[in-house]
Amino acid sequence: MRIAIVEDDPVQAALLKLWLVEEAFDCHLFEDGEKAIKALQKDSYDLILLDWYLPKFNGAEVLAWIRDNLDWKIPVIFVTQRDCEDDLAYALEHGADDYVTKPLKPVVLKARIHALLRRVRGVQKNTNNSQKFDRFRFDTQSNQLYVDDAPVTLTQKEFELALFMFRNSGRLLSRSHLLESVWGHSADLNTRTLDTHISRLRKKLNLGEDTGWRLSSIYHHGYRLESVTG
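Below the sequence we write its predicted structure tokens.
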């Protein structure tokens, strides 16, 4: 899970990262609004922790850019000292998903993050360790994928990549996001490894208009898996 932390106080940013790494999140720090926007133009994240007072572009301006320019409603939590009701209302009315005031309590912050991720993504219904996406059924206990109940032979990483992309269908996922999420944060890999796995999945799963799912390459960014039915 990738989290972008937009916080100009280096001590506070380091503390946030320390807390969230304990939850196995991959954290990326940005010290001002301009750097955060530049990163969001080429990379993808699962959630953003956004301070209100920032150099160059403040938190409200960064939030406005996110809601106007990103094609997926990435969850945003404001983390700030502002705590009056008008500020809370402003943040929520302009697209924030939650609001946490400083000084922060790690237990509360972690709980709010997990609750928001569950709410935004929806709690997926699993039956006997199985997750189903139309014709595609993933058995997460045996790491076996079935298409129309017929087993498909995949390597371990192909299975993990396919499951991650189906769980995030409709999202534009950057290459670094996919590499971190499937191969691990410290994986010493280049994008050719990912591109090769993507090519294999297209062929093995026969992804295309005829099968109801399209796996698109987005130039200079990454990949998007989306349903084309209905």
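Residues 123-127 have pLDDT under 50 and may be disordered.
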